[in-house]
Amino acid sequence: MKEDLYEAMGRLGLRRTVSRMLILGILAEKDTHLSVLRLHQMVTASHPMVNLSTVYRNVAAMTEHGVLHSVEHTGQALFGLAATPHHHLICERCGRLDEVPADELSQAAALLLTAHGFEIEPAGQLLRGRCRRCRHAANGAR
Fold it and tell me: In terms of pTM, does the model score above 0.90?
């Protein structure tokens, strides 16, 4: 997946700078969405000379070109890889954010279109609820 994003950057005319490669590597390794501040902390762990504005500019450029995407959560933008179409599940109790492949919601999307004439975007939906761990913790407390 990471190699596909590297190739996509070249096709899109984005230079493969050290900062951009570090950001992509971190997001691929962590397999989650991170804020620019958290990305900066992780980038500077190995490359202390990279400043926050550089991370902001690179994240903005890669988002604009479709290499990354963002989701709003707890009042901040979190950035993740845009390698495959997916939706987001956010636990309102613990804040966990998981990705769901877009095709897993295709039946629900078809039902919404048939029943309500409403067509949802093929990716990027944000679904809020409680994760398995928080549901089990709540059920165990009863």
Answer: no
